[in-house]
Amino acid sequence: MEKGGYGQRLKDFLSSDTKEAKIATVALCVLALASLPVLVVGAGAIGNVVQVFKMFKGSRKYSESQIRSAINSVKRQKLIEYIVDRDGKTIVKITTKGKTRLRAFDIELIEIKTQKKWDGKWRLVMFDIPMRFTKGREALRYHLKKLNFFQFQKSAWIYPYPCEDEIIFIADFFGVGKYVEVLSVESILRDEKIKKHFHLS
Fold it and tell me: Where is the Transcriptional repressor PaaX-like central Cas2-like domain (predicted)?
């Protein structure tokens, strides 16, 4: 998973009052943050996990029954698993499937920070993705559009602020990272439309 902003994005999400996520997603986010490296609970595993939800402001709006149901749901989906160690303690772990689900959700939370003062450079995202990776190419285009990139050409998109880490993270998730390049460009001829798109003078 991405270094740096991943955990903070999940924390910010859980501390907000967003209505975008279902409680099962909230449950998985809580367990991911609480289980670094693992969350150890006793005999009352579910009861103890419910207590963990109180750590996060945005999670407190759910009732205990809702939380229990959500935890059981992510377990049925094999996003988490319970492992009993030699001492009889139950360890709640995020499965590989669960980590993949979290990574996909993390991509939905990604925002590229703007700078108070633009440095005058353009970030040019270019890619030449083989036809066999059509889904990955379309997914990348979808996220570039969602992040408000300016489409310069069919496979060339522009953004005014640093975005290399975020774009490579997204591209890698969809399996097309090695076909993507991010360049820093000093100037672009006839950039009026681009500046207008980003509200730059």
Answer: 116-189
Q: Is the dihedral of CA 47, 49, 50, 51 positive or negative?
A: positive
Q: In this structure, are 45 and 129 located in the same domain? A: no
Number of domains in the chain: 2
What span, in angstroms and rounded, lies between the C-alpha atoms of 72 and 168? Answer: 34
| pLDDT confidence band for 9 (50 / 70 / 90) | confident
pLDDT at 87: 74
Angle 164-173/96-109 helices, nearest 10 degrees? 140
Burial 35-46 (b: 16+ CB within 10 A, else e): beeebebeeebb
- 79 and 11 in one domain? yes
Residues 103 and 27 in one domain: yes
Residues 140 and 186 in one domain: yes
Does 71 share its domain with 31?
yes
Q: Is the pLDDT of residue 199 over 70?
A: yes
Give pTM, 2 decimals.
0.73
Sign of CA dihedral 80, 23, 140, 187: negative
